C-alpha cells in the first residue's frame, strides 16, 4: 500500500485555488488505482486532510498522517512548507513543494528531503524577464517593470532575482506591495497609471489576483503587458473581470492542454465512475492540470523508487531516493498520457530544483481558456544559482547542517 | 459662618472641630446648564453636614466637585486649610475623602468582600512584583487589610453576605456594602449621596445608626444628601439647602426648617 | 451531597483567601498537577504534542494574558495576534543575538518586551472605551504585523521573511528545532504555563486584581474610590502582554519552529484567543484553560469524527466544522453566557445542594 | 497646473469613492449596533452570504448541491434556469429577511440583556456558522457577479479633464462602479436617517438601543425591532456585497471587507448613520493620500491596512465617541 | 375611585407564584395578590423582599433577567398572561414603570414620552393629545422636552418614566418605587398625580414602595412582603393602624415619631421573623 496524503484547502480565502489542485492531485492517483491497479501493483491510499491554508492545521495534518506511512507531502502552502522542512528532515519523509515553498531548497545537498522541481520562484521571475527580453529584441534597457506583490514572504520572493536581473538588463524596477487580502488596490493602480510602467509583473494570490486584473482593466492598462506568476494565472483569477481580462498573461510551470489523452482516461475511469474528488467540472483547468502534474511526478518517483529498491511497497526513505533519481523525458510524459505537460528534467542530489523552465500563457476570454504563448523558456541560472547557493548555505550554517551528497 | 470656627461640643457630646473643607464661590456649568451657581459653604471637622434641595438642584454635582469628579469653572476648594489645586478624583481619594453614590456604583462582578477591599486600596502598598510572588509581603498585607475590612463588615452587620457577588444583592444591602467600601478607606471626610433612598423605615433606622456610629466612634466628618426630612433633621448638625444651583439656606436643622424660602422651594409643607 | 463545603472551616483569613478554599478542589488541583507533570510525559507522542497538548498549553498562556486584560480589567483587545508576534520576534532576535543565553530567559525577556509594547498601545485606553478600544487595538494588530513584515532587521534579513528557531537546549534537553522530542516541547510549555498561571492567580486575587476589576465594573466609581485609572489600565496591558508575549515566543520557538508573521499572527489569532476566554469564562483563570482546551480540541474532534469515523469528504467536514463551531459557540453563549467556568460553578452549586433542587 | 498636484487630486477623488464603499459595509454595523448594542462582526459574512445567494439564484444553482451529491451520490448542480438580476435581487432580499428572522429567533432572542462582549462573541459564532452554511449551500469557488453595473474608467471624465495637466496627464480616473456605489450609498443613508429620526419604528429602534428592559416595559417588541434591523442590515449587506462582489468576484475574502469598515465605524461613531459615510470618506481619502504621499515613497507601501486604524485611533483620543457618535454619558 | 370598603372586581390576580433566578435562586416562595379594578394597591416590604420581582413577573420582564415563574399563575381580567410576551401584556393595558427610572438616555424627553405610545394604533392626533395631557400633569417636562433624558435630574427622569407609561393609555400601571430619590415635595406631587389618574381616569395601580407612610396614605389596599412571602395584607386603613406596621414600617411608636438619633439605643426584631 502506498500512502499519499493530500493536504488540501477547500475552505477559506484560497479555496478557489485549492480545490482544483487537490482534485487533479487525487483524481490522477485514483485513475492509477482504477486503471492500473496502483503503481507497480501496489494500490495507492489517499488521505485527504483539510488545512484551510492554515499553518497550524497543516502541522496537525502532518502529524496525524505521518504515522500512516505517508510517502510524500505536497503541502501547497509556503507557510506550511516552512513548518514541515525541519520536521520532514527529522522524520525522513520527502517534501515536494512544486513551484512554491523555500526556493533555496533546490540545493539538495542542504535540503535532502525537500524537492521543488520543476521550477521555483526565482526561476519564474527569471523566465518572465527572459520572455520580456525576447519580446523586446533582446534588450530591456530603459524599460520599466512594476512588481505588484502580495505583501508576504511569498510575494517578496522574486524581488531579489528581479533586482539582480535589473542590474544586468538595465530595466527599471518599482515595487508595489499589496497587503492581505488585497481587496483594495486603488492606490497601487493609480500609481501604476501615473508611472506608466511598460510591464506589470504580479506575484499575487487569492482575491488579490482578481482585483488586480479588474483594476488593470479599469485603468486601461494593456493586458498583454501584465504578467502574473504561476499562482496568478488560473481561470478563476480572470473570469470575474469578464471580457476585460482578455490578453492577460501568466507564467506557468506546466502546459495547459485540455485535449491531453489522460483527461479522457480520468473522465472515463474516475469522473464517470463517480470516484472524482470534485464534481469533475475542473478537469483540464489550469490548477487541475497542475495538481495532476504533481501527482504524475510523484507517481513517477514512486516507480523509480520501486525500481531502485526492488520492492513495491516502498518507504518514505525509498521515496526520497526515487525523487532524487527522477528523470522526466518527453517519452515518460507520453506514457502518462500527457505529452508535453511539463519540461523534461532530471533530479540530482545537488539539484532538487528541476529544469527551472516555464512557459508564458495568455488568457483568451472568448474561449475561456489559457493558451500557451511560448515553449519552455529557460531561466538564467547564472543569476539564480548563486542566490540559491547563498541562501541554502546560510540555512545550513544556521541549522548546523553539513552540506553534501552521499 | 466665618466667625464660628471655634471647636465646640454638641448636645450629645460630640466634638466639632474647625473647618475641614471649605467651598468658595463654586460655579459649575455643563454647556448651557448651570448646575451650581456661586455657592459657598464649609464643612467642619466631626460634624454631620446635610445638603438638601429639590431634584436637579445640583446636590450630587456639589459632591462631585468635592470628590474631584467635576472641576468647577469658578471657585476654590480649601481642604484642611489649604487650597486644593484641580485634581483627578483618585488623588482626592488619597486625601482621605471617600464617598457613596446616588445610583449605586458597586463593582457588580466582584464579591462583597472584594468590593470592600477595594476601599482599602490606598492602604495597600505592596508592589506589583511582591503581589506576583504573593507569599510574604503581599500575603501579609492582604491579611492585615482583611482584618480591617472584617471590622467594617462586622460593624455594618453584613457578615453573612461576604462572599456573595454584589450583583445579586437587594438594593438596601448594596447601599450598605457601598457604605462599607467607603468606610474601609478610613476616610476623614465621608460623602454620602442619598444613602437611604429606597429604604423602608426599619432600614433607614439601621443606616442612621451606622452613620451616627461612624461619626461618633471614628470621628469621621460626614456630608450627606438626603431627601427624607426626618433623617436629615434628626441626624445633621447643619444643613445647606440648594435650589436650582443656588444656595437658599444654611444653618441648623431648626433654622432651615423654618426658613420660608426653603419651605417654598423644597419642603412643601413644614415638617416636624 | 457529593460536593461538600460545610465542615471545611477556615481559622484564618489567610486560609480563607487561598486559591482553592475547599479541600476537595485543592486535592483535585494537586491531582491534575501530578498527572500533568508525572503521567502525561510518559504517554505523549508527536501527534498529541503537536496537535493538541502543546498548542493547548501555549494558548492557555495567551488566554490567561488576554483574560487579565479583558476579563479582569474589562478592556477588550483584538491585538493579541500582534502582541504574540512581538513576543515571537523578540524571542527570535534574542535567540540569534545571544545564542549562549538560555532560551528560558529569552522567552521571559520576550514577554517583558511585549509588555512594554503592550503598555504603549494601552495608552489610548485612558480615553477610548468599550468597542472603540477594541477596534483601536486592531491598530496594534495591523501595525505590528506590517512592521515585522516590512523591516527586515526583525527577520535578520532572511530572503524568505520567515523566522526559523535555531536549536536550543534547556538543562541539556533540546527544546527548539526539528529534533525536539514531544516530551521536551510539552514540558517546557507546561512549566511556563504553570508559572504563568500561578503568577496570574496571585495578581488577580490581590490588590492589583481588585483594581483591575473595579475598572472593569465601573471605571468612574473606581477612580473616585482612589484607583488611578492610567496605572490600573497600563499594568493590565503590561501583564497581559507579558503573558501573551511569552505565549507568542513559545508558539514560535517551541511549537511551530518557523513562522511568517502575517500567517501565524494575523487577526484570526486575536479572535481565536478572544474566543477562548469568552467560551471559557471572562475573569477566570480556570476559564482560560477551559476555553483553550475547547477551542483546540473541538476542530480536531470534529475532524476525527467527520473524516475518520464517517468518511465524509474533507471539504464538507471542514464546512460543517465551521457550522458546528459557530453553532456551538452560539449554543454555549445562550446556555451560559459566562462561559465554561460559570457552568462549572453552577454545576458545583447544584452539586452542593444535591439532592435538593434549591 | 502641476501634474503632481493633479495626481494628488485624483488620489483624493478615488479615496472618496473607496470611502463610500467602506461606508456601505459600515452602515450595516451601525444599524445593528444602534438598535441592539450588538457589535455585529458577522456583517462581512452577511455581505458574502448575500452575494453568494444572489449569484446562486441568478445562475439557478441548486443549494447544498455538493452535500446532496455527496450523501445521495447524485449529480445535480443546476436547475438550468437563469433569473434576471432585478428579480434575483428581490429574492435575495427576501432571503436576507428570512435570515434576519432566524438569526434573531435562534440566537439573539436568547441573549437579551447580556453584556456587549457576549453579544459580540455570538456574532462571531454567527459569522462562522454563516460562512460554513454559505459554503455548503453554494460552494466555495469564486463566482462572477454581473448584475449589469457599469465597470471601468469613466472615459468621459478622463477625456474632459485631460487638458488640465498638459502632456503628462491622462485626465482624472474614476471607476464607474464607484460612482454608482456613491449614488446608492447616498440614497441609502438618506433613507435610513429619515427612517430612524422620524418614524415610530425608528424611534423605537433607538429606544431599544438605550435600554432593552425599559423598551420591553413600554411594549416595544424587541423581537420585531431586531428582526427589522437585522433585515435592514442584511439588505445593506446585500448592496455592499453587490458592489464589492462586482469588483473581485464573489468569494470568501468578501467577508474580510468587514475589517475595512471597522476604522470607519470608529471614526464616524458606532451609532451614527451619517457618521458611517463621513468616516468612510475620511478614511478613504486619508489612507490613499498617506499611501501616495508617505507610504509608497518612504515606507515601502501597503500602509493602508494599518493607517486607517491608526488614523481612527488618533482621532478617538480627542473624541472618544467618534465624530458623530452619541456622547458617552458619564455620570455618577 | 374605589372605596376601600366595597367589594369590586379583581382585575389582576396573582396566584401562588414562585420565581427562580438563574435556575437556582428562589426569590418568590408562593406570592398571591389580588388587585382590585380601579384601585391603588400597595406592595410593601423591605429590601429584597421581592416586590420588584413580583411586578416583573406580572409584566413578564423576568425573562430578560434570567428569571422565570415556575409555579402558580397570573391572570389579568381572567386571562392567563404569564406566557405572553411583554408587549402583549402592554397591549392588554398593563404597563410597568421600572424601578430606577430606566429612561432612554439618548432620546430627548419628548421622544421618551412618544415611545410610550408605541403599542397604540390610534393615530397621531390622539397621541399628541395625550402628550399634552402628560405635559399638563408634569409641566416641568414640557420645559425640558428637548433635552436628552440622560442629563435630566433624578426627579425629572422619574416623571419621564411615569409620563411615558401614561402615553400607552394603560388600564393598570405597575409602579415600582416611584418615590425613590425624590424630594418630599415631588413625592407628594407624584402621588398626587397617581391619585388624580386613579380618580379621573380610573387607572388601576399596583405600587411597590418602601415609603410605607406615603404609600399607605394614598393606597386602598396593601400587601406586605417579606422574604418572598406575603406576611400581611388588608385595606390600607387597617394596615396603618396595625401596631407592627407602625413599629416597623412607619417608625412611630406609642409616643409618636421616633427620632433617627435614638435608634442607636435599641434594636428590635420583627415578631413574625422570630
Ligand atoms: N454630566 C452632566 N452633564 C450635563 N448636565 C449635568 C451633568 N450632571 C448633572 N447635570 C445637570 O445638572 C443639574 C444638577 O444635577 P444633580 O445631579 O447635581 O442634581 P441633584 O441635586 O443631585 O438632584 P437629585 O436629587 O435628583 O439627585 C441637573 O439639571 C442635571 O441635568
Ligand atoms: N437578576 C437576578 N438574579 C439573581 N437574583 C436576583 C435578581 N434580581 C433580584 N434578585 C434577588 O431577588 C430578591 C428579591 O429582589 P427584588 O428586586 O424583587 O426585591 P425588592 O423587594 O424589589 O427590593 P428593593 O426594595 O430593594 O427594590 C433579592 O434577594 C435579590 O437579590
Ligand atoms: Mg443627586
Ligand atoms: Mg425593588
UniProtKB/TrEMBL annotation, chain B:
Q: Which Pfam families match?
A: ABC_tran, BCA_ABC_TP_C
Asked if Lyase is a keyword of the record, the answer is: no
List each copy of the ABC transporter domain by range.
Answer: 21-269
Name the Gene Ontology molecular function terms of this record.
ATP binding; ATP hydrolysis activity
| CC annotations in GO | plasma membrane
Keywords in alphabetical order: ATP-binding, Nucleotide-binding, Transport
Q: Which InterPro entries match?
A: AAA+_ATPase (IPR003593), ABC_AA/LPS_Transport (IPR051120), ABC_transporter-like_ATP-bd (IPR003439), BCA_ABC_TP_C (IPR032823), P-loop_NTPase (IPR027417)
Would I find S-adenosyl-L-methionine among this entry's keywords?
Answer: no
Q: What domain of life does the native source organism fall in? A: Bacteria
Please give the name of this protein: ABC transporter ATP-binding protein
UniProtKB/TrEMBL annotation, chain C:
Q: What is its main location?
A: membrane
The record's subcellular locations are:
Cell membrane
Cellular component annotations (GO), alphabetically ordered: plasma membrane
- Annotated membrane topology: Multi-pass membrane protein
InterPro entries membership: ABC_transp_permease, LivM-like
Record keywords: Cell membrane, Membrane, Transmembrane, Transmembrane helix
Query: Is Acetylation one of the keywords?
Result: no
Q: Which residues cross the membrane?
A: 27-44, 50-69, 76-95, 101-123, 130-148, 183-203, 236-259, 271-296, 316-335
CDD domains reported for this sequence? TM_PBP1_LivM_like (cd06581)
- On whether Transmembrane helix is a keyword of this UniProt record, the answer is yes
Q: Which GO terms describe its molecular function?
A: branched-chain amino acid transmembrane transporter activity
The cross-references to Pfam families, in alphabetical order and at most eight, read: BPD_transp_2
Protein name (record): Branched-chain amino acid ABC transporter permease
What is the native source organism of this protein?
Salibaculum griseiflavum
UniProtKB/TrEMBL annotation, chain D:
Q: Name one Pfam family in it.
A: BPD_transp_2
**Phosphoprotein as a keyword?**
no
Q: Which GO terms describe its biological process?
A: amino acid transport
Q: Which UniProt keywords apply?
A: Amino-acid transport, Cell membrane, Membrane, Transmembrane, Transmembrane helix, Transport
Q: How does it sit in the membrane?
A: Multi-pass membrane protein
Transmembrane regions listed in the UniProt entry: 12-33, 45-67, 79-99, 111-130, 179-199, 220-244, 264-286, 298-318
Q: Which GO terms describe its molecular function?
A: transmembrane transporter activity
Q: Which InterPro entries does the record associate with it?
A: ABC_transp_permease, BCAA_transport_permease
Give the record's GO CC terms.
plasma membrane
Matching entries from CDD domains are given as: TM_PBP1_LivH_like
Q: Where found in the cell? A: Cell membrane
Family statement drawn from the similarity comment of this UniProt entry? Belongs to the binding-protein-dependent transport system permease family. LivHM subfamily.
Q: What name is this protein filed under?
A: Branched-chain amino acid ABC transporter permease
What is the protein's species of origin?
Salibaculum griseiflavum
Give the classification, highest ranks. Answer: Bacteria, Pseudomonadati, Pseudomonadota, Alphaproteobacteria, Rhodobacterales
From TrEMBL, chain E:
Name the source organism.
Salibaculum griseiflavum
A single GO BP term for this record reads: L-amino acid transport
Domain ABC transporter as annotated: residue spans: 12-252
For this entry, the protein name equals ABC transporter ATP-binding protein
Q: Does the keyword Transport apply?
A: yes
Keyword set for this entry? Answer: Amino-acid transport, ATP-binding, Nucleotide-binding, Transport
Give the matching Gene3D superfamilies: P-loop containing nucleotide triphosphate hydrolases
Enumerate the Pfam families for this protein. ABC_tran (PF00005)
Amino acid at each position: 500500500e502506498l500512502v499519499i496524503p493530500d493536504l488540501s484547502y477547500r475552505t477559506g480565502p484560497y479555496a478557489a485555488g485549492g480545490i482544483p489542485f487537490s482534485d487533479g492531485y487525487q483524481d490522477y492517483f485514483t485513475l492509477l488505482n482504477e486503471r492500473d491497479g496502483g503503481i507497480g501493483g501496489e494500490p495507492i491510499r489517499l488521505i485527504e486532510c483539510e488545512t484551510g491554508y492554515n499553518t497550524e492545521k497543516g502541522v496537525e495534518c502532518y502529524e496525524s498522517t505521518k504515522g500512516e506511512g505517508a510517502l510524500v507531502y505536497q503541502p501547497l502552502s509556503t507557510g506550511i512548507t516552512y513548518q514541515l522542512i525541519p520536521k520532514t528532515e527529522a522524520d525522513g519523509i520527502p517534501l515536494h513543494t512544486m513551484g512554491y515553498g523555500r526556493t533555496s531548497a533546490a540545493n539538495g545537498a542542504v535540503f535532502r528531503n525537500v524537492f521543488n522541481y520543476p521550477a521555483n520562484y526565482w526561476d519564474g521571475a527569471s523566465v518572465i524577464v527572459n520572455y520580456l527580453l525576447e519580446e523586446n529584441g533582446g534588450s530591456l534597457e530603459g524599460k520599466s517593470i512594476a512588481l505588484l506583490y502580495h505583501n508576504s514572504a511569498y510575494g517578496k520572493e522574486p524581488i531579489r532575482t528581479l533586482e539582480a536581473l535589473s542590474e544586468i538588463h538595465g530595466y527599471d524596477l518599482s515595487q508595489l506591495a499589496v497587503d492581505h487580502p488585497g481587496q483594495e488596490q486603488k492606490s497601487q493602480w493609480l500609481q501604476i497609471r501615473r508611472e506608466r510602467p511598460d510591464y506589470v509583473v504580479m506575484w499575487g494570490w487569492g482575491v488579490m489576483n482578481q482585483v488586480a486584473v479588474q483594476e488593470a482593466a479599469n485603468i486601461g492598462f494593456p493586458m498583454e503587458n501584465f504578467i502574473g506568476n504561476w499562482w496568478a494565472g488560473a481561470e478563476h483569477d480572470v473570469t470575474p473581470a469578464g471580457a476585460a481580462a482578455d490578453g492577460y498573461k501568466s507564467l506557468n510551470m506546466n502546459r495547459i492542454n485540455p485535449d491531453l489523452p489522460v483527461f479522457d482516461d480520468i473522465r472515463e475511469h474516475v469522473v464517470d465512475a463517480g470516484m472524482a474528488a470534485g464534481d469533475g467540472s475542473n478537469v483540464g483547468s489550469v490548477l487541475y492540470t497542475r495538481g495532476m502534474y504533481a501527482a504524475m511526478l510523484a507517481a513517477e518517483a514512486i516507480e523509480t523508487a520501486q525500481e531502485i529498491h526492488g520492492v513495491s511497497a516502498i518507504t518514505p526513505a525509498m521515496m526520497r531516493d526515487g525523487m532524487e533519481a527522477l528523470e522526466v523525458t518527453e517519452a515518460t510524459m507520453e506514457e502518462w498520457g500527457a505529452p508535453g505537460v511539463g519540461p523534461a528534467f532530471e533530479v540530482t542530489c545537488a539539484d532538487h530544483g528541476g529544469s527551472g523552465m516555464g512557459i508564458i500563457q495568455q488568457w483568451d476570454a472568448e474561449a475561456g481558456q489559457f493558451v500557451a504563448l511560448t515553449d519552455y523558456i529557460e531561466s538564467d541560472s547564472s543569476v539564480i544559482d548563486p542566490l540559491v547557493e547563498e541562501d541554502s548555505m546560510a540555512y545550513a550554517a544556521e541549522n548546523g547542517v553539513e552540506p553534501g551528497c552521499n | 459662618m466665618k466667625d464660628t470656627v471655634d471647636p465646640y461640643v454638641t448636645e450629645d457630646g460630640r466634638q466639632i472641630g474647625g473647618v475641614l473643607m471649605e467651598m468658595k464661590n463654586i460655579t459649575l456649568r455643563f454647556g448651557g446648564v448651570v448646575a451650581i451657581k456661586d455657592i459657598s459653604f464649609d464643612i467642619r471637622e466631626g460634624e454631620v453636614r446635610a445638603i438638601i434641595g429639590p431634584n436637579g438642584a445640583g446636590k450630587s454635582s456639589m459632591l462631585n466637585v468635592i470628590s474631584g469628579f467635576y472641576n468647577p469653572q469658578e471657585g476654590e476648594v480649601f481642604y484642611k486649610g489649604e487650597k486644593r489645586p484641580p485634581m483627578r478624583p483618585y488623588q482626592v481619594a488619597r486625601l482621605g475623602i471617600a464617598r457613596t453614590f446616588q445610583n449605586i456604583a458597586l463593582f457588580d462582578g466582584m464579591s462583597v468582600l472584594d468590593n470592600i477591599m477595594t476601599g482599602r486600596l490606598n492602604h495597600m502598598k505592596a508592589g506589583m512584583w511582591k503581589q506576583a510572588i504573593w507569599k510574604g509581603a503581599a500575603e501579609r498585607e492582604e491579611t492585615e487589610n482583611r482584618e480591617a475590612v472584617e471590622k467594617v463588615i462586622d460593624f455594618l452587620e453584613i457578615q453573612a453576605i461576604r462572599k456573595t457577588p454584589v450583583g445579586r444583592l437587594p438594593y438596601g444591602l448594596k447601599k450598605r456594602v457601598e457604605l462599607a467600601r467607603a468606610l474601609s478607606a478610613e476616610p476623614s471626610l465621608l460623602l454620602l449621596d442619598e444613602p437611604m433612598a429606597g429604604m423602608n423605615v426599619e432600614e433607614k433606622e439601621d443606616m442612621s445608626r451606622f452613620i451616627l456610629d461612624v461619626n461618633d466612634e471614628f470621628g469621621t466628618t460626614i456630608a450627606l444628601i438626603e431627601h427624607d426630612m426626618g433623617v436629615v433633621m434628626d441626624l445633621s448638625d447643619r444643613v445647606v439647602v440648594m435650589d436650582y444651583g443656588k444656595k437658599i439656606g444654611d444653618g441648623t436643622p431648626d433654622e432651615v426648617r423654618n426658613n420660608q424660602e426653603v419651605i417654598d422651594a423644597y419642603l412643601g409643607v413644614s415638617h416636624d | 451531597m457529593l460536593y461538600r463545603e460545610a465542615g471545611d472551616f477556615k481559622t484564618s483569613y489567610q486560609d480563607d483567601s487561598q486559591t482553592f478554599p475547599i479541600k476537595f478542589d485543592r486535592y483535585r488541583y494537586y491531582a491534575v498537577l501530578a498527572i500533568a507533570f508525572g503521567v502525561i510525559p510518559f504517554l505523549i507522542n508527536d501527534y498529541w504534542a503537536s496537535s493538541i497538548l502543546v498548542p493547548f498549553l501555549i494558548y492557555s498562556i495567551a488566554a490567561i494574558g488576554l483574560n487579565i486584560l479583558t476579563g479582569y480589567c474589562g478592556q477588550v483587545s483584538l491585538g493579541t495576534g500582534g502582541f504574540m508576534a512581538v513576543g515571537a520576534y523578540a524571542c527570535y532576535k534574542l535567540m540569534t543575538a545571544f545564542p549562549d543565553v538560555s532560551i528560558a530567559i529569552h522567552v521571559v525577556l520576550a514577554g517583558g518586551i511585549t509588555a512594554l509594547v503592550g503598555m504603549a498601545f494601552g495608552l489610548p485606553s485612558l480615553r477610548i472605551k468599550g468597542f472603540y478600544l477594541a477596534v483601536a487595538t486592531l491598530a496594534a494588530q495591523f501595525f505590528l504585523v506590517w512592521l515585522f513584515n516590512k523591516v527586515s532587521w526583525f527577520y535578520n534579513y532572511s530572503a524568505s521573511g520567515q523566522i526559523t528557531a535555531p536549536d536550543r537546549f534547556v538543562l541539556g534537553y533540546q527544546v527548539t528545532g526539528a529534533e525536539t522530542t514531544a516530551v521536551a516541547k510539552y514540558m517546557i510549555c507546561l512549566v511556563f504555563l504553570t508559572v504563568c498561571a500561578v503568577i496570574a492567580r496571585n495578581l488577580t486575587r490581590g490588590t492589583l486584581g481588585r483594581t483591575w476589576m473595579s475598572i472593569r465594573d465601573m471605571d468612574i466609581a473606581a477612580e473616585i474610590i482612589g484607583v488611578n485609572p492610567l496605572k490600573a489600565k497600563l499594568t493590565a496591558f503590561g501583564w497581559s502582554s507579558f503573558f501573551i508575549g511569552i505565549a507568542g515566543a513559545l508558539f514560535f520557538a517551541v511549537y511551530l519552529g518557523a513562522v511568517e508573521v502575517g500567517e501565524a499572527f494575523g487577526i484570526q489569532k486575536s479572535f481565536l484567543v478572544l474566543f477562548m476566554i469568552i467560551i471559557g469564562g471572562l475573569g477566570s483563570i480556570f476559564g482560560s484553560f477551559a476555553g483553550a482546551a475547547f477551542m483546540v480540541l473541538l476542530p480536531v474532534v470534529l475532524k476525527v469524527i467527520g473524516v475518520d469515523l464517517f468518511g465524509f469528504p474533507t471539504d464538507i467536514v471542514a464546512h460543517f466544522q465551521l457550522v458546528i463551531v459557530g453553532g456551538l459557540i452560539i449554543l454555549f453563549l445562550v446556555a451560559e453566557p459566562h462561559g465554561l467556568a460559570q457552568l462549572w460553578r453552577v454545576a458545583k452549586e447544584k452539586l452542593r445542594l444535591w439532592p435538593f433542587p434549591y | 497646473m502641476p501634474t503632481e498636484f493633479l495626481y494628488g487630486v485624483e488620489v483624493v477623488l478615488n479615496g472618496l469613492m473607496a470611502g463610500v464603499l467602506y461606508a456601505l459595509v459600515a452602515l450595516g454595523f451601525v444599524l445593528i449596533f444602534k438598535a441592539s448594542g450588538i457589535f455585529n462582526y458577522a456583517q462581512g459574512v452577511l455581505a458574502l452570504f448575500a452575494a453568494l445567494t444572489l449569484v446562486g439564484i441568478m445562475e439557478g444553482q441548486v443549494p447544498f448541491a455538493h452535500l446532496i451529491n455527496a450523501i445521495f451520490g447524485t449529480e445535480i448542480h443546476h436547475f438550468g434556469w437563469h433569473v434576471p438580476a432585478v428579480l434575483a435581487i428581490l429574492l435575495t432580499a427576501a432571503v436576507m429577511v428570512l435570515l434576519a428572522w432566524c438569526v434573531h429567533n435562534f440566537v439573539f432572542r436568547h441573549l437579551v440583556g447580556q453584556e456587549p462582549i457576549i453579544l459580540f462573541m455570538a456574532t462571531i459564532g454567527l459569522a462562522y456558522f454563516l460562512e460554513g452554511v454559505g459554503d455548503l449551500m453554494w460552494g466555495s469557488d469564486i463566482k462572477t457577479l454581473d448584475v449589469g453595473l457599469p465597470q471601468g474608467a469613466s472615459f468621459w471624465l478622463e477625456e474632459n479633464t485631460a487638458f488640465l495637466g498638459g502632456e503628462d496627464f491622462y485626465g482624472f480616473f474614476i471607476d464607474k462602479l464607484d460612482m454608482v456605489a456613491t449614488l446608492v450609498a447616498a440614497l441609502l443613508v438618506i433613507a435610513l436617517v429619515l427612517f430612524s429620526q422620524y418614524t415610530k419604528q425608528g424611534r423605537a429602534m433607538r429606544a431599544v438601543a438605550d435600554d432593552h428592559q425599559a423598551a420591553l416595559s413600554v411594549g416595544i417588541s424587541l423581537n420585531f425591532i431586531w428582526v427589522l434591523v437585522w433585515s435592514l442590515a442584511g439588505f445593506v449587506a446585500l448592496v455592499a456585497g453587490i458592489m464589492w462582489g462586482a469588483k473581485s468576484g464573489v468569494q470568501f475574502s468578501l467577508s474580510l471587507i468587514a475589517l475595512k469598515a471597522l476604522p470607519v465605524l470608529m471614526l464616524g461613531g458606532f451609532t451614527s448613520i451619517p457618521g458611517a459615510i463621513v468616516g468612510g470618506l475620511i478614511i478613504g481619502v486619508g489612507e490613499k493620500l498617506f499611501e501616495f504621499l508617505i507610504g509608497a515613497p518612504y515606507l515601502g507601501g501597503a500602509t493602508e491596512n494599518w493607517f486607517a486604524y491608526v488614523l481612527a485611533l488618533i482621532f478617538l483620543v480627542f473624541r472618544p465617541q467618534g465624530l458623530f457618535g452619541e456622547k458617552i454619558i458619564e455620570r455618577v | 375611585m374605589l372605596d376601600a370598603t366595597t367589594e369590586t372586581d379583581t382585575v389582576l390576580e396573582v396566584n401562588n407564584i414562585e420565581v427562580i433566578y438563574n435556575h437556582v435562586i428562589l426569590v418568590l416562595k408562593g406570592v398571591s395578590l389580588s388587585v382590585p379594578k380601579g384601585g391603588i394597591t400597595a406592595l410593601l416590604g423591605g429590601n429584597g423582599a421581592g416586590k420588584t420581582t413580583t411586578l416583573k413577573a406580572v409584566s413578564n420582564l423576568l425573562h430578560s433577567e434570567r428569571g422565570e415563574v415556575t409555579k402558580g399563575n397570573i391572570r389579568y381580567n381572567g386571562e392567563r398572561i404569564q406566557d405572553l410576551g411583554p408587549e402583549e401584556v402592554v397591549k392588554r393595558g398593563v404597563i410597568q414603570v421600572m424601578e430606577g427610572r430606566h429612561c432612554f438616555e439618548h432620546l430627548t424627553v419628548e421622544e421618551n414620552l412618544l415611545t410610550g405610545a408605541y403599542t397604540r394604533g390610534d393615530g397621531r392626533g390622539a397621541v399628541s393629545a395625550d402628550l399634552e395631557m402628560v405635559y399638563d400633569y408634569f409641566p416641568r417636562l414640557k420645559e425640558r422636552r428637548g433635552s436628552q433624558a440622560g442629563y435630566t435630574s433624578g426627579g425629572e427622569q422619574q416623571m419621564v418614566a411615569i409620563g411615558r407609561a401614561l402615553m400607552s393609555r394603560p388600564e393598570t400601571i405597575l409602579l415600582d418605587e416611584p418615590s425613590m430619590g425624590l424630594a418630599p415635595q415631588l413625592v407628594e406631587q407624584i402621588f398626587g398625580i397617581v391619585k388624580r389618574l386613579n380618580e379621573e381616569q380610573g387607572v388601576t395601580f399596583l405600587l411597590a414602595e418602601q415609603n410605607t407612610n406615603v404609600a399607605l396614605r394614598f393606597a386602598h389596599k396593601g400587601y406586605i412582603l417579606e422574604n418572598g412571602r406575603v406576611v400581611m395584607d388588608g385595606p390600607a386603613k387597617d394596615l396603618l393602624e396595625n401596631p407592627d406596621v407602625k413599629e416597623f414600617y412607619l417608625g412611630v411608636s406609642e409616643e409618636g415619631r421616633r427620632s433617627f438619633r435614638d435608634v442607636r439605643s435599641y434594636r428590635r426584631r420583627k415578631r413574625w421573623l422570630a
